[in-house]
Write a structure and sequence with these properties.
- The complex is a heterotrimer.
- Chain A is an all-alpha fold.
- Chain A is built from 10 helices and no strands.
- The longest helix of chain A has 38 residues.
- Chain A is globular.
- The model of chain A has no long low-confidence stretch (mean pLDDT 90).
- Chain B is an alpha/beta fold.
- In chain B, helix 6 crosses helix 7.
- The termini of chain B are far apart.
- About 3% of the residues of chain B have low confidence.
- In chain C, helix 2 packs across helix 3, helix 2 runs parallel beside helix 4 and helix 3 crosses helix 4.
- The N and C termini of chain C lie far apart (44 Å).
- Chain C has 8 helices and 9 strands.
- The chains are: A mainly alpha, B alpha/beta, C alpha/beta.
- The interface between A and B is large, with 40 and 37 residues.
């Protein structure tokens, strides 16, 4: 059955199936948007936690690490309650639209990006700490310099966040509703086809998704190697 | 605080790729959705009215709950008692009948319980007596509610007795059928989902044709008095269309493998 | 505050104690403009701690410390930390950190790189340079800042002989321009080559503080002599 699924997957792609491409494109759009937002929030947050001398630091690090393990389905439920018409932000009308999916995935991956950024910045800072102190570099300039200097490690952190987002189903299923042609993404489509008993199609979609994730990891690895060779 | 920032940013980066055409949100059941009916019906409605319909597929109970929360404009489910309660509570304006389909009992082709026939009461009693494995939806869906009614009519109650051969999976029709196929068990299903279901393994129709297996669908518009944002005009347009001759004909023309799944029966007004 | 323009650093009975352990104790020291001071001592004697205290990277737990503003100082570390950029970008970075305007940054970068013999390597990525070249680059970063005093923490400890001499040459050139140099080293030979004044540390205390000539002529404390013999071996 697995070989048939692989063949079906290639067939679907070759047929340039419009519905399939829409699903793939929506998956990429939602997860990429979430990654961008998570980076805007998570990277400065992670950098701040890395550099702060506040006594909250240890608590924050533990908290961030714990949040990395939040189950997507729980996040989905919480965002659902927030965005439901009966909920506090119901007036936005975002429930069952891609916007809600982006919100949920942003909440899901911001801890990952923040925690990875913290680690990267902390390691980088340890290296440069004395020199920066000697130069009298301001905190803001330190953050900026470290973020740029650690750019390759940070890009791989972003790819890690994106990979997690594009592969999850619990959150987007609940807040998106898996609406045909509107909020259906790869993972929810696979879930649907499986529940309909169309395992072949589900497997075919699964192959496509896994290939995307593999390609992503290959890119992340290539970036790391390039950086190591170039910059040492 | 972080959430506010997230939402503010999301609003600021407002992705305009997502269309602003007219649309309604329809809460319906997984079995209806998975039968393929909506894929056949809704494009016709959109062509006639210009209104897109976004279908959220849940169990009947969950669909009505989502509607109670105001997260849908119209509900389209198949549990008369629950629907009438919904209207009585004031969440819905009025219930109108749209179509019916029927339930069938699916079972292993070797029929160990000797349930095959067209008498649902006899079949269920036979399954109960032989303790053959039986999969129940167990999820407050219309199908689940119907199943419980049939057990009651047959005079036995495996659910409360917590019989070990009676397996409640708490899932939609498709996953429940998957489970039944894997366990070689009996299961009550709607004909539509069964016809579209591909993972049959050893299962086949065991019981059909009993008048009690008749499954009525109703459509209800949400009451704007409860939720002011409800799209009353567009929602009513959908209801008017689906009970109209055009909508009813569209339902009748939906066929899987040459067989019609749903039979329109809206009352003429 | 410095007593007069000629005093760049004054330590009065300063100590640094961490977790009950005194790393340096009862240090009283004065460094004047134009000096070339080498701090000697065995490993763990407290040379690094004293240097960092002098530069202002750590504060004394007891005693007083007065020094010129950090903007007039620079420091060189044993292992240079360089950004993942080109050599000249690193120098410009250190100038930018001190708020030097861009046009001036370019001119001073060229000057500093030339002084350190790195003009040909200006556009090379800093981390791809050899150990000695990287240390000279760190020196160039310091040179460009035109500090009144340069602190250097065992700057040639991890370099081969050729690189050592190259770095020493730059240090001498910097000193010739008027910069005061305070460096630590565990190499007697290097101290002899470079220093005008020796400060010897033994177990966190200063046991000798004399001109290099006198120190190497034999006027030193027992601990220093002990160190001397140890090195000779």
């Amino acid at each position: 059955m697995i070989f048939n699924a692989l063949r079906d997957a290639l067939g679907l792609i070759a047929a340039a199936d419009g519905a399939l491409f829409q699903i793939i494109w929506l998956s990429l759009k939602v997860s990429a948007s979430a990654t961008l937002l998570a980076a805007l929030i998570g990277m400065p947050l992670g950098a701040w936690v890395a550099l702060t001398t506040s006594r909250l630091r240890t608590i924050l690090i533990v908290f961030l690490n714990a949040c990395m393990g939040l189950p997507p389905v729980v996040i989905g439920l919480l965002i659902y309650l927030l965005l439901s018409r009966s909920g506090p932000l119901g007036a936005l009308g975002w429930l069952f639209t891609p916007k809600a999916m982006i919100v949920a995935q942003t909440v899901l991956i911001t801890p990952i990006i923040a925690a990875l950024t913290r680690q990267v910045i902390e390691d980088a800072h340890a290296e440069y700490k004395d020199w920066f102190a000697s130069l009298g570099l301001s905190v803001w300039a330190t953050v900026r310099t470290l973020l740029v200097d650690a750019r390759f490690s940070l890009v791989t952190a972003l790819l890690a966040g994106f990979g997690r987002a594009v592969a999850e189903v619990g959150a987007v299923m609940i807040v998106g509703g898996n609406i045909n042609g509107f909020t259906r993404v790869m993972t929810t489509a696979i879930s649907l086809e499986t529940s309909k008993g169309d395992l072949a199609l589900a497997l075919a979609l699964g192959f496509i998704l896994v290939s995307m994730v593999f390609a992503l990891n290959a890119v992340a690895h290539a970036i790391k190697r390039y950086a190591a060779r170039r910059y040492g | 605080m972080k959430r506010l920032a997230t939402l503010a940013l999301a609003a600021a980066l407002s992705l305009s790729a997502f269309a602003q055409d007219k649309f309604i949100t329809l809460a319906s059941t997984t079995s209806t959705d998975q039968s393929g009916l909506f894929g056949h019906l809704l494009p016709q409605f959109q062509k006639a009215s210009g209104i897109a319909v976004r279908v959220i597929a849940l169990g009947t109970g969950q669909a009505l709950d989502a509607a109670r929360r105001g997260d849908a404009d119209v509900v389209f489910v198949h549990d008369k008692a629950a629907e009438e309660k919904f209207v009585a509570e004031g969440f819905g304006l009025e219930r109108q009948e749209v179509m019916f389909n029927d339930f069938v009992v699916i079972g292993p082709s070797d029929d160990a319980a000797k349930a095959i026939g067209n008498d649902i009461n006899a079949a269920l009693r036979a399954i109960y007596a032989s303790k053959a494995p039986f999969v129940s939806r167990g999820d407050k869906s219309g199908t689940h509610a119907a199943e419980l009614r049939y057990w009651k009519a047959a005079g036995v109650d495996p659910a409360s007795e917590k019989q070990s051969w009676y397996r409640e999976v708490g899932q939609g029709m498709g996953p429940a059928l998957n489970t039944a196929a894997a366990m070689n068990a009996y299961i009550l299903a709607d004909r539509g989902t069964w016809l579209a279901f591909k993972n049959r393994q050893n299962l086949a129709i065991a019981v059909e044709g009993d008048k009690q297996l008749f499954n009525q669908y109703g459509v209800i518009l949400l009451n704007p008095a409860k939720h002011a944002h409800v799209k009353k005009t567009e929602g009513q347009a959908f209801i008017d269309w689906i009970v109209s001759p055009a909508g009813q004909a569209a339902i009748a023309s939906f066929k899987v493998n040459g067989q019609a799944l749903f039979f329109p029966n809206a009352t003429k007004r | 505050m410095a007593d007069d323009m000629a005093t760049l650093l004054t330590l009065q009975n300063a100590s640094v104690t961490i977790q009950g352990k005194a790393l340096v104790e009862a240090i009283s020291l004065r460094v004047g403009s134009g000096e070339f001071v080498c701090m000697l001592g065995a490993n763990g004697a407290g040379k690094s701690t004293l240097l960092r205290l002098a530069h202002g990277l750590i504060a004394p737990t007891h005693g007083a410390c007065a020094r010129v503003p950090i903007a007039e100082q620079a420091m060189l570390f044993q292992r240079p930390a360089l950004l993942k950029r080109s050599a000249e970008e690193n120098v410009r970075f250190s100038l930018a950190a001190r708020d030097v305007p861009y046009a001036e940054q370019v001119a001073r970068t060229d000057e500093a790189l030339a002084a350190c013999g790195l003009s040909a390597l200006a556009t090379r990525y800093a981390r791809s340079l050899s150990g000695g070249e990287q240390q000279r680059l760190a020196l160039a970063c310091a040179w460009a800042l035109r500090p009144r005093v340069l602190f250097a923490d065992e700057p040639t400890a991890s370099l081969d002989l050729n690189a050592v001499h190259a770095v020493e040459a730059v240090l001498r050139a910097l000193h010739a321009q008027g910069t005061t140099i305070v460096m630590t080293t565990h190499s007697l030979a290097q101290a002899k080559r470079l220093a005008q004044r020796i400060v010897f540390l033994h177990q966190g205390r200063v046991t000798d503080d004399a001109s290099a000539a006198l120190f190497f002529a034999g006027e030193r404390s027992p601990s220093a002599s002990h160190f001397f013999e140890g090195e000779r071996l």
